Amino acid sequence: SPPVSWDMSADGRPSSEAALLITVSDPEKHGTSITAAFVDYKLSTVTQLSRYAAKEFFVRRRYRDFVWLRDRLCHAFPGCVVPPLPTVDSPLKDDRFSPNFIERRQAGLQLFLRRVAGHERLRESSDLQTFLEAKVWELQTVKNATGSSWLGALFDGTQESLKSVQSLMAHKVPDEEAIERVRAFAANYATIASASASKQHAAVRTQADMASDLRQLAPALDMLSQSETELSLPLTHMAAALDRVKELHLARVQAEHVCGLSALLAFNTGMATALNEVLANRDAALLQYQKAAAALDASTKERQRWQEAEHSGAPSPRSGVLGKLDELMYDPQKGSKVEVRVKEADAELSAAKERWEAISTSIHTEVDRFHRQTNADFSRGLREHVLEQLEFEQAQQREWEQLLDIVERVETVPGTAASFRPSSS
Questions:
Q1: Residue 90 and residue 93: Cα distance in Å, rounded?
Q2: Centroid of chain to Cα 46
Q3: How far is the C-alpha of 268 from the C-alpha of 68, rounded, in Å?
Q4: Residue 167: φ, ψ to 5°
Q5: Cβ distance 388 to 263 under 8 Å?
Q6: Is the Cβ–Cβ distance between 122 and 238 less than 8 Å?
Q7: What angle do the packed helices 177-227 and 261-311 form, to 10 degrees?
Q8: Which of 255, 311, 270 has the alpha carbon at shortest distance from 92?
Q9: 133 and 55 in contact (C-beta within 8 Å)?
Q10: What is the mean pLDDT of residues 150-173?
Q11: Distance between CA atoms of residues 38 and 409, nearest Å
Q12: Deepest in the core among 17, 88, 266, 389, taking most CB within 10 A?
């Protein structure tokens, strides 16, 4: 699969750091059953990071392994914009085992890993190291043992959870002005990016439809050439030219979704969604902080009531059934238990406060990174798109010019059938 051209630095190197270079290659299909068959990819890693066991190594991973990795990154780094994976469904609705689909997915997985490796915090992930180094059975063992986190209880790090968290945050305190600006930008940008990607896909879909029409027209002209013997040669040439133009359209459609403007807009839409996920993570952390504060307040009041009761002295013992009930309910360890609950609630509040503040602080860094990377991507991507369109149009023009040389040699005399004049050369 060719590299995504707009994911390059000015000197043509991948945008990820040289300390961790990951290449996705050699897709292989396993199995024949529709439900059980899958494709995995070779992941080759070259690194100078000392925590890895070797400087060069490779493993094979399938798509669901990438899904696990992104999920782990979202939970471990809730304040970071985790790059998106290529979508499960093909925008072109072709077979998921077709070479074209596999090429597009491979390019998307490559881009995901490049951006993770290029992020100074994400590339330090122990889950990423496991993903890159572990044998298949070792990775599966880790995946089976992976537990839920504080965030998982409220939010699973995906777009589907945004509404549920937003409903929980309906009565939250107002954000500071800077966060509110980020929130407004992220919501608006995600909508615009999604609409742009949809419109570009519609344009590329039109190009795919054009290729489909040409696929039917070329054989029809070929059959016509057999009926009009005098025009047999020019019609045959035209059918062949249309077939080549069809291939140009198909190649352009595929390139668009592998490394072209369509791929850029789809990735950018995913990044916008990921930015909104970080804001939702912050909301979830704030909600957890508020719940922890309420729990500490309740525990503190319980301790205060117990202390007041202790200071006021024991009440006169009651007789009969009520006395027996008092004896059963009396807990000599209540004071120490209350103290434990207060300490636990205080520790949870401190942890929740630290999580919320960490996410709030990192948001501004992540937004700055988002703007810089988006500007760089589109600066390169738009230029590449224009150059590729020019090359595509020039290739078409060459086909038509060659065909023109053929059809211009067709001579017609009034009242007679057309004839073909051989080239003077």
A1: 5
A2: 23
A3: 21
A4: -70, -35
A5: no
A6: no
A7: 150
A8: 255
A9: no
A10: 51
A11: 54
A12: 266
Angle in degrees, CA 99, 101, 104, rounded to 5: 105
CA 99 to chain CA centroid, Å, is: 21
Instruction: Tell me how far CA of residue 410 lies from CA of 145, 272, 405, in angstroms.
Output: 75, 57, 10
3-state secondary structure of 410: strand
Residue 313 region, left (φ>0) first, then alpha (ψ -120 to 50), else beta? left
Q: By three-state DSSP, how is residue 229 classified? A: helix
Residue type at 102 in one-letter notation:
I
pLDDT at 230 over 50: yes
In the 3-class helix/strand/coil scheme, how is 134-188 assigned residue by residue?
CCHHHHHHHHHHCCCCCCCCCCCCCHHHHHHHHHHCCCCCCCCHHHHHHHHHHHH
Cα three-residue angle 133-131-90, rounded to 5 degrees: 135
Contacts of 285 (CB under 8 A, 6+ apart): 78, 151, 352, 355, 356, 359
- What is the Cα–Cα distance from 231 to 402, expressed in whole angstroms? 17
370-423 confidence digits (pLDDT tens): 999 999 999 999 999 999 999 999 999 999 999 998 888 876 555 555 555 666
Please state the φ and ψ torsions of residue 371, each to the nearest 5 degrees: -65, -45
Closest CA to 115 of 127, 107, 104: 107
pLDDT tens for 324-366 read 665 556 566 677 888 899 999 999 999 999 999 999 989 999 9
Q: Show the tokens assigned to 125.
A: 């992930």
- The tokens describing 15, both together, are 């945008």
In whole angstroms, give the CA distance from residue 309 to residue 304.
9
175 touches 280 (CB < 8 A) = no
- CB atoms inside a 10 Å sphere around CB 335: 14
- Taking the CA atoms of residue 274, residue 277, residue 279 and residue 284 in that order, the dihedral angle to the nearest 10 degrees is -160
Q: What residues pair up with 81 in beta bridges, in sequence order?
A: none
Give the closest residue to 179 by CA, choosing from 372, 375, 369, 362: 362
In the chain the first and final C-alpha atoms are separated, in Å, by: 42
Are 203 and 256 a contacting pair, CB within 8 Å? Answer: no
Q: Are the C-beta atoms of residues 288 and 338 closer than 8 Å to each other?
A: no
Question: Other CB atoms closer than 10 Å to residue 305's CB: what's the count?
Answer: 11
C-alpha 229: how far from chain center: 56
> Which of these, 236, 237, 234, 240, lies nearest to 214 by C-alpha position?
240
